[in-house]
């Protein structure tokens, strides 16, 4: 598979026209940012986590995004209910295994989730993807201690085992689907200094997967848009907070010529 | 009733002088933004949702704002306790029925709330007000699929039934009290692309209702201030994130001449 | 003890080099801002509150920050588990008694916390420190009704009783350790109009305490950095939202000459 600007733009254009509903069961830290990123891109975000309503909400959504960043038992139950319903309805599931490896609670939860209701797409940093795959890895909280390229093997194993697209983000983003692999080289070194931009990348995968029936290019397109908006944002950013503001504004302004000018595979 | 700049300014001026405590039981996505909007305007926000403390917190507040955006059973219990206490103490209650119609859980909760402890003010988008009134309406998550004018009938029915002021926001905001109705035409088309500006409008109703004993003009004044600050913010915004930043700054800077220059009824 | 720019800079420099993990059990309103402040400074934040994982997370952290801003029973249990584990491992604990005095639930919780697992550092506004010490104090939600100097006596009593550093923030910040006391006069009057900058100050204490084994200068250095970044931010801020953005950017850009130029004891 080849990723190119016109394919990326095509997905963005459909998201803006259709405004797909993306149902997020995500962490408290990033909810505001991911909702704003989805809105700026053109999608319609909803956050809902109560057991009595998640199945209903999945039923009207174009994608389900599950992020375990601030999980607790009640939320885990809702994640399983929502994921099961998404499977029934054939709605794409995107998983962000935040901090897997840092505590056994996170590792166990994420592994149960991927085996009970295999996600369509998994996106994490190098440490998380390696820990999810049960590889030896030093972890430190929710920030990666591994570069993304060290995690490619783990991504391939997970992808084959689960039939999922696995995306490892870092200086280079690797998107793996079975034996196939593409990379995206967009992005800016200041981006990891903004909390939740990884979670935002995962949320954008939901938007792209809701309009593109093939999750492999959908994921790569989402990563390209993340990185391109990040580079556009960095041009005038004075630090991580103005980078975050500029990033959301860039998602809103993004046009086909920006993608052509910035895209790096 | 007529809404005019000097009436709007009078309320803003009292909020700044008295700094009323506004108790919010609201959703995770918007807490930070609504707290900042209340602080920028001059009010004093507090977020508290635990069953053991909500009644105490209501007891020292000037208004109670209930927003069901990310509700769960424990939070619903707290909402009922807080609303009952507010009724006892004659403290104004403002309800934001976020996403009513999207799931039966939200619809049921909101209807129980309005019938158990009728709010002083209800603010929602067109879809939400119609769904709350049991009208046929297509819903999609938390974003409206109806324009505000289609919901005026529903607002009038709810207002008469509950004795509440009902506010439907959209391109034009309609504020209904029994047979009376006023409209506010301020605002900017980019505002719905910022998550939680509707929730912020609801929170501001709490601030205005805490200083103006008549909730009808209080609600209209809050909507005017929202729309005016949004228009001021849009003048230099490059997208939804800089709009949000400028909006909070505009609430802080807002002076009587701004209201005179921008107000559109 | 004397606070000076080179001592402040030394701590900042170590934080940037070591990127210590700071485990926060904090409130929903400020999570995003405090995570971003810690990242901008150079630390690595993690938010985790589930009973089954907090002890594990404390075990890999350099400091534990407990903030009771939006507490509930489940979170209180996690706070006690995490604090007990931090005591066992000799990891510094920083407590922010948000809104103590506003409800008996908060007051009782904070007092139980400080007596069960005495924190290394307590940071609050004047009202909170006085209420925590059982002094007569009028409270209003989470904003202070007392100036910081009125609370110095309470800070000294708490410090002696608990063996903790107690920090009262306000126009002047007072840092008390037993009979010793230092003050920091940096900051800007617009800072209290941004929600959660007090909570951010507390989170920064965690970062400084994780690299400086003496919590007395660590706390003073954290307050100096808060105030200096606030003054730098205010230079071009148009209101509280641009102040918040500039503040995070200033934490990221902060260099030794800024500290030399701005520090006021």
UniProtKB/TrEMBL annotation, chains A, B, C:
Record Pfam families: HK (PF02110)
Keywords: ATP-binding, Kinase, Magnesium, Metal-binding, Nucleotide-binding, Thiamine biosynthesis, Transferase
Obligatory cofactor(s): Mg(2+)
Listed InterPro entries: Hyethyz_kinase, Ribokinase-like
Catalytic activity: 5-(2-hydroxyethyl)-4-methylthiazole + ATP = 4-methyl-5-(2-phosphooxyethyl)-thiazole + ADP + H(+)
Superkingdom of origin organism: Bacteria
Binding-site residues, ATP: 123, 169
Example GO biological process: thiamine biosynthetic process
GO molecular function annotations of the record: ATP binding; hydroxyethylthiazole kinase activity; magnesium ion binding
Keyword presence, Signal: no
Pathway field: Cofactor biosynthesis; thiamine diphosphate biosynthesis; 4-methyl-5-(2-phosphoethyl)-thiazole from 5-(2-hydroxyethyl)-4-methylthiazole: step 1/1
EC number(s) recorded for this UniProt protein: 2.7.1.50
Chain sites annotated for binding substrate: 47, 196
Function: Catalyzes the phosphorylation of the hydroxyl group of 4-methyl-5-beta-hydroxyethylthiazole (THZ).
Protein family (similarity comment): Belongs to the Thz kinase family.
Identification of the protein by name: Hydroxyethylthiazole kinase
Species name: Desulfocicer vacuolatum DSM 3385
Organism taxonomic ancestry: Bacteria, Pseudomonadati, Thermodesulfobacteriota, Desulfobacteria, Desulfobacterales
């Amino acid at each position: 598979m080849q990723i190119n600007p016109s394919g990326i733009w095509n997905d963005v254009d459909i998201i803006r026209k259709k405004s797909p509903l993306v149902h997020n069961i995500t962490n408290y830290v990033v909810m505001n940012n991911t909702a704003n990123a989805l809105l700026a891109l053109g999608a319609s975000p909803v956050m809902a986590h109560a057991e009595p309503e998640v199945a209903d909400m999945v039923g009207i959504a174009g994608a389900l995004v599950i992020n375990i960043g601030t999980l607790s038992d009640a939320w885990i139950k809702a994640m399983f209910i929502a994921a099961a319903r998404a499977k029934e309805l054939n709605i794409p599931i995107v998983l962000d295994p935040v901090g897997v490896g840092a505590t056994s609670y996170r590792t166990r939860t994420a592994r149960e989730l991927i085996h009970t209701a295999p996600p369509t797409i998994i996106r994490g940093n190098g440490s998380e993807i390696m820990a999810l795959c049960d590889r030896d890895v030093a972890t430190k909280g929710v920030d990666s201690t591994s570069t993304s390229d060290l995690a490619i093997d783990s991504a391939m194993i997970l992808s084959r085992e689960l039939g999922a697209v696995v995306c490892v983000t870092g200086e280079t983003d690797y998107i793996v689907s079975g034996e196939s692999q593409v990379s995206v080289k967009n992005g800016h070194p200041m981006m990891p200094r903004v909390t939740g931009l990884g979670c935002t990348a995962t949320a954008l995968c939901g938007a792209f997967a809701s309009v593109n029936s093939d999750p492999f290019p959908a994921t790569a397109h989402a990563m390209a848009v993340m990185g391109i908006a990040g580079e556009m944002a960095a041009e005038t950013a004075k630090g991580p907070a103005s980078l975050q503001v500029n990033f959301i504004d860039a998602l809103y302004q993004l046009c086909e010529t920006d993608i052509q000018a910035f895209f790096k595979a």
